[in-house]
């Protein structure tokens, strides 16, 4: 089944190159950016400013092709791509939870953003963990268990170019 | 910018109609379903079973068109679509965190699933809140503050048909 989408805006950040970037929001704490939403969607932002955090879905537009098994930035072992957050994945959709600082017309000022400048935006959802967190009893995070703290300091390299 | 995606599999659930469904995972606690991933992507599941929860991105395939302001299931006021999780949104991508029960070849058995039977899958990511949760100091959830508990019991109606 083929699906046609259209970007609804663009994410602007200080990251101009796929190398040397933070690899997760926890490594991008305090990094500011902005989203310019297409003007035709501006009315969809009503009441969004009452949320402190938003969930962005975007296209990892500089990635070509995908790998089924990858060696992610934080590990030396190979894992299935769906057990990682590697950008080189089928449909190459990225997902980040960022802080919403303020909204001015169709521009949304954000912090903790870990994406490349010029990234096409697909969706904005309010971040409301209350809607699922009572379904999570015992959390297991696989190979991230011993590695997730690396996300704070590790930067991307060229492996997914 | 036009973007072409392709579903990577199908989500199967007991929900055959867009009306009368749970509206969030918290209302679907214990509801079992399964994902049949296209066989060509099966190698991408390696090590996924070490995670207790996964983040699904999927196409809200029965939704046509979008609204910029919506009255969501849980509220009587109108909000901008990006301040809600209404399905009638540009790019109509849905997002759920579900429990992973087991994997057998290219079939993934899941719980707490709140989507329609036959939903096209776009991506599976491991659910690793550690990768962003230290960036969240003070969480504000806007209009959900007084309404999010309704998600446990409220079912969908026909408003987004």
TrEMBL record, chains A, B:
Residues in TsaA-like domain copies: 5-136
Claim: S-adenosyl-L-methionine is one of the keywords in the record: yes
A molecular-function term among this protein's GO annotations: methyltransferase activity
Sorted UniProt keywords: Methyltransferase, S-adenosyl-L-methionine, Transferase
Any Gene Ontology biological process: methylation
Protein origin, superkingdom: Archaea
InterPro entries: TrmO-like_N, UPF0066_cons_site, YaeB-like, YaeB-like_sf, YaeB_N_sf
Keyword Metal-binding: no
Family named by the database record: Belongs to the tRNA methyltransferase O family.
UniProt name for this protein: Methyltransferase, YaeB family
Source organism: Methanobrevibacter smithii DSM 2375
Origin organism lineage: Archaea, Methanobacteriati, Methanobacteriota, Methanomada group, Methanobacteria
